[in-house]
Design goal:
Length: about 325
């Protein structure tokens, strides 16, 4: 666990048994955040639950001054807990929400998601079916723009050298073969419920990544702590996809390249770590860079190399 997460005791506050704390991070996504909140207010029947919105420094222009989106969300939804936070990434935002949460169960949910029927009871039911062994659960994820198409029905294990895995069911039509609850290698960062007991044992998400790989890393830490992770298709979340780092942008490519190296340095050991870092630095990154250059995408090529370099030589404690 890195220093910035160790500096605060996340569990010093008493928590309420049965309460679910829904934590979401907002960054220049006011409309999406409001859609998500309103979908829960409309469809969710589980009680009790609280909604915590962490605003990662986003601003909304009103007239001649800047008003934070946190203030706007608090104005529209007085019952929602709003935390004004610096922009310290996905994990940092979620950890800021964790600090003020009171629930026995923590549901980390992307702000660009919605629900169309109750899901919280189903997810909690999976956790309490074996609370000493099951630490986390993710629902089925579908694309909001294509509600019959899957984004996630569990993850395959990640290979130790190439660090590749696959989202089961990705871009496939929903079918009976995806509707059986099962163990999964990793939770999905867009929607994952974790028991407070599991977090107390494994620790919160590390903040070394800023973007990407946080949930994959956390899934490993939970499993190392002895917990199982489950995919629960009886609960469905609809995902609009990320608005923070769009596909095909230098920002996204930089943080993806950086995160892969950091993940290898944190979670692969011995000769496999050397092999993984060698593969990522001398094969994967150069190949991707050449492809970008051949297509005239100089900014993406530069982002790939810079991200890989920073991930490899980051000196702060991992």
């Amino acid at each position: 666990m890195d220093k910035n997460t160790q500096s605060f005791n996340y569990f010093q506050k008493p928590f309420q048994q049965g309460l679910i704390s829904l934590i979401t991070v907002n960054f220049n996504g006011l409309d999406d955040t409001c859609d998500m909140i309103e979908s829960f207010q409309k469809f969710e029947t589980y009680q009790p639950y609280e909604i915590i919105v962490v605003d990662n420094g986003a601003q909304q222009r009103k007239g001649d001054y800047q008003q934070s989106e946190a203030e706007e969300i608090q104005l529209r939804y007085p019952d929602v807990k709003v935390v004004q936070n610096i922009n310290n990434g996905f994990a940092g935002g979620n950890n800021a929400g964790l600090k003020v949460s009171e629930g026995e169960y923590l549901f980390f949910l992307n702000n660009d998601t919605i629900i169309k029927e109750p899901i919280l009871h189903t997810l909690v039911k999976r956790l309490v079916s074996d609370p000493q062994r099951i630490g986390g659960v993710s629902p089925m994820l579908k694309f909001a723009s294509q509600p019959d198409t899957l984004q996630y029905a569990g993850f395959t294990p990640m290979s130790s050298i190439t660090l590749r895995n696959a989202s089961i069911g990705f871009m496939q039509k929903d079918a009976p073969c995806f509707r059986t609850a099962c163990l999964t290698a990793s939770l999905h960062g867009a929607a994952m419920m974790v028991s407070r007991q599991a977090i107390e044992t494994a620790g919160p998400m590390t903040e070394v990544y800023f973007l990407f790989y946080e949930e994959l890393d956390w899934s490993l830490q939970l499993q190392k702590a002895g917990y199982q992770l489950w995919y629960e298709p009886a609960a469905v979340v609809y995902h609009k996809e990320s608005m923070t780092a769009r596909k095909g942008t230098p920002l996204r490519e930089f943080y993806l390249s950086r995160a892969r190296i950091l993940f290898a340095r944190r979670n692969v050991y011995g000769f496999k770590k050397m092999g993984s870092c060698t593969y990522l630095c001398l094969l994967a990154a150069p190949k991707k860079t050449i492809v970008y250059l051949l297509h005239g995408q100089v900014a993406l090529a530069k982002a790939t190399l810079c991200g890989t370099w920073q991930g490899l030589f980051r000196k702060k404690k991992l």
